[in-house]
Amino acid sequence: MNKYNKLLTIILFVIVSIMVISMINVDNAHDTRDRNGNYNPFSDGTSSITLSKNSVSITPGSSTTDSYTVELSSGTTWGTSLSSNSLSGFTIGFSNSGGDPPYTGTMTISIASTVSDGTYHVFINATGDDPSSSPAVLSVSVTGHASSTTPPPVTPSKSFTALYGTDIAGSSVIILFLLAAIVPMVLRRKNLAAMGYLSFIVSMGSALFLITDDSLLRSSGYLHWLLLLVFTAGMIVSMLGYLLTKDKLKETARMGLAYGSIFMSIAMILDAALGLPLSSISNVGGSIGFNYLFGFGINAPSTLAVSLAFSILLIFNGLLFSSFFRSKSSVSSKKTN
Predict the structure, then answer these.
(1) Which of 38, 71, 136, 197 could cross-link with 102 by S-S, CB 3.0 to 4.6 Å?
(2) In this structure, is residue 20 part of a structural domain?
(3) What does the alpha-carbon distance between residue 191 and residue 232 come to, in Å, rounded to a whole number?
């Protein structure tokens, strides 16, 4: 076993240890009323949130209300606390923000006068010992200004960044992924192993971050979260097989690394294009897939950290695929000769 194999084996054991510790921490979270406010699949129960209206219209500078009901879906009744995503210019208030389900209340949505016309989505989550398995989604249509005796001022349209920022960011990341898949094709063969190992470490680091820290992925896209978990475990097993075996088993592991990374990349791009089809927020409208994966905090429900992790995972998966695919072809050519 050469020095690269020894080093990467150590790193793999560290990654697996981090994953196990993270899963244990999630498991223990149900005893602390979910201190981080994230969805915890090991909680005492789950709750559901029902809104009386799924969409409302409002003018800038005014407010509206919607009633809600929080009910226990499974498990035992403990406690929940309501929260919503943060939107610029929006103030969300709850008349009854927590308690033991079932309970009801009224949500007040206040809009600043500076909010531009358009459709916004408010995600309401229940956190605590009985977290909601998926958020309730309220579509808020902001149109015009409050009537007055004077002519209304001209309302600026949404900024270029708000309208096209996520599409540009997502397209740029996909282009970088394609370029990353080409780079190893022009590298010297002796550099392929180092490039493949580096890409693997960075990709797995991003995947582990998303598995342990992306609460929206766990709560609203649980199948996506499970697929990411299976992908990560499979890639780690493949890398261990590549490092510790020889001949046909080594080639099989190499193929698993190459094709596993490219299949995951294709799945991520399809998720963005199709609007997260396996999630509970797939039908909220707009470019929800690109907003979530590549929004970088420009539009809800994206965050800078999550979008950066998805982008790094996609780009370095391209490097990982090309490195091991070309290395595989190189080994096959040598055997033929």
Answers:
(1) 71
(2) yes
(3) 24
